[in-house]
Specification:
Largest sheet: 8 strands, mixed
CATH topology of the largest domain: Rossmann fold
Radius of gyration: 24 Å
CATH architecture of the largest domain: 3-Layer(aba) Sandwich
Shape: elongated
CATH class of the largest domain: Alpha Beta
Strand order of the largest sheet: 3-2-1-4-7-8-9-10
Structural class: alpha/beta
Distance between the termini: 57 Å
Length: about 425
Amino acid sequence: MQTVAIVGLGYVGLPLACLCAEKGYKVFGLDLDKEIVESTNKGISHINDKALEKKLGKLKGKIIASTEADCLKEAEIVIVCVPTPAIGSKPDLKPLENASKTVAKFLKKGLLVIIESTIYPGTVEEIVKPILENGLELRAGEDFFLGHCPERIDPGNEEFPIEKIPRVLSCFSSEGTEKARKFYASIIDAEINVLKSVKSAEAVKVVENTFRDVNIAFVNELAKSFDKMGIDLAEVIKGASTKPFGYMPFYPGPGVGGHCIAQDPYYLIDRAEKAGFEHKFLRLARKINEAMPEYVVSVVEQGLGAKGLKLSDAKIACLGLAYKPNVDDIRQSPAVKIVKLLEEKGAKLNVFDPFLPKLSNTVSLREAVKGTNCLLLLTNHNVFVKELSPDFIKGIGVKLVVDARNVLDKDGITNVGIIYKGIGR
């Protein structure tokens, strides 16, 4: 039985630890957060994900979590899954640097070290490798093996759990690459793509997420344009999607959230800048998406104005805080930014997210919408989409619906005499 150590038990590391344990590996988990360590050892997931909660409960005792780095001693494979945030528009690699320094203390011949954290091209070679080799006679690709396999995980996605998602990897030697390939082949039931260079593997994740950011920026800009022209963008996308080739639908919204899409482009922008190239297009996409929360607030203001109300005189039901449906994740969430902007403008807010009760100031949907002038849907949780029918909305007396996710029944809502405003519709 091989021993795997996972450094970082967050949204990436914890599901990976569970998967390794399921496949028969002896698993250690290292995390600085005592609460995460304690809950993991009790078989309780700190991440609100039903499938993960069930899985970890069954694996209680099979994942040994610790805040002490000594747990890396036995490891034959170390996978680093620490967060790599961006501070403003600049990558923050401090967590990765610190994790690398910790791993370096337990480096030994034959050890396989894989970085799964999202990074810009050249990070493993320029930052991680020197830290691991510092002051030692061990060399990457010869004495120990080092590479990158960009994480791919979509919390709450039942169709594509971690073990069903294809992976990409590369190491600094063919021997290391083969060891990494065999490891991932032993835990996932999907294709493993081996690339020729570690830099190429590092570029994969930032390209994937930058692709999404750029296309979301495109439809967000179309939404603003079509609002001016009186065109329903949802109808246009529906029509364009009938073309069986050369088109892929993306949808407008209140902005881009999550740990990856909102900041991975900055990793590519920053690294290219250091190499002497300026990504003007990517910077523009970021600017467009980062401006969407302000645009949503302006849509609310316009709708209230049609009813003779100012924001400072209005009471608004803000539904949803998470950045995506059916999870409790608020990282980079545009909903959180919109709530803050509305508060700054003096609006009275009833905030409710069933996945984030501690951040809500109401305890139910009915309480949240009671006595409000405007219903603002910020996160398309299933429960909201199901409950917010035209009849329900009419029954609570709301006169304005701002659907920042374009998921509610526009025609039904307008047919019962309520103003409906979406993003681009």
